[in-house]
Amino acid sequence: MKIAQIAPLYETVPPTYYGGTERVISYLTDELVDLGHDVTLFASGASQTKARLVPMRPKALWLDDAPLKSPVVAHLAMLEQVRARADEFDVLHFHLSHFMHFPFFKECAQRTVTTPHGRLDYVDLAPSYGLWPRYPMISISDRQRRPLADANWLATVYHGLPLDLYRPPADRPGGTGNYLAFLGRFSRDKRPDRAIEIAEKSGLSLKMAAKVGDDDGPYFKEHVEPRIDGRVIQHVGEIDDAGKPGFLGDAAALLMPIDWPEPFGLVVIEAFACGTPVIAWNNGAMPEIIDQGVTGFVVDTIADAVDAVEKVRALDRARIREVFERRFSVAAMARNYVAAYEALLKGGGAASVPGGRAVAAPSP
User: Fold this and answer.
1) Which fold has domain 179-326?
2) Read out DSSP for 114-145?
3) Contact assessment for residue 83 and residue 108, using Cβ atoms and an 8 Å cutoff
4) Second-level CATH architecture of 2-160+329-356
5) Which residue from 361, 182, 139 is spatially nearest to 280, judged by alpha carbons?
6) What is the pTM assigned to this prediction?
7) What is the mean pLDDT of residues 269-273?
């Protein structure tokens, strides 16, 4: 197949810093090339890919220190260039937020798929999608669909990671770790304050590898920073891919005490890749991604989370890695996207996969 992947322009593909969407696009694009497909990636300059790169601006928006930038204009200019070349591709796969591309591609909507990577409960999205109901959509979890339940959902395809990206620590197979981990951003929605309380009540230390985003400063200063003592509650700074296997693999569990409808949670499968269980709040896609009592626990209260800290010690970390390889590898993700593309082309844009999924691997 001739496939166009259209990425947001905020970060490079893969991202230089924080950017889960661009990371997934990178893994998917390279795997599709390895499967023999002819793939073109429309993305920001300095992106690295096995596909044919068409740079849409010299620098990613977040990496451009120009004093005046217009993300809207940058994306509109990209869409016009993609539209001019649309006939070159069998499938155009958009990874853009909030349906900005819909007005450009009405004539070939049946050859497009859109994967929204964020939440879909914004008040304007449902009525706006109603103006373009023919556009096929691919969700990253079944839970993500709920605010747009009547959209033209083609499949659900879970994120996947390369098998060799993260592995359990070789010198500690099957170990359980002696601390809890928190990884991501110090955002109110991600509730690091809950993670701190869980650690304090469980008797384990907490290591937080997280960044303070532009909008997170006041929350961090008030609710998190005063509780960091450097001993029980530690802030170890941001870590890169090279540091994640040790950080996650040596932890007793990753804490994901989120307070928002997380559509997937890439950090969860990063922990699984390291053989580390996850204790997550019952929000968003967590019940879909975590196999209760196998790869971790989904909880509703602090007390349940503290109880789960004891339970994770009995989980088989080798099995967690096995589940990751079966359900969340990049090969599984690409295979499922290809199945969705084929269904799209067979059904002229109205195709549907029974149960709302592509060939998603079953739970253990």
Assistant:
1) Rossmann fold (3.40.50)
2) E---S----TTHHHHHTTSTT-EEEESSTGGG
3) no
4) 3-Layer(aba) Sandwich (3.40)
5) 182
6) 0.91
7) 97
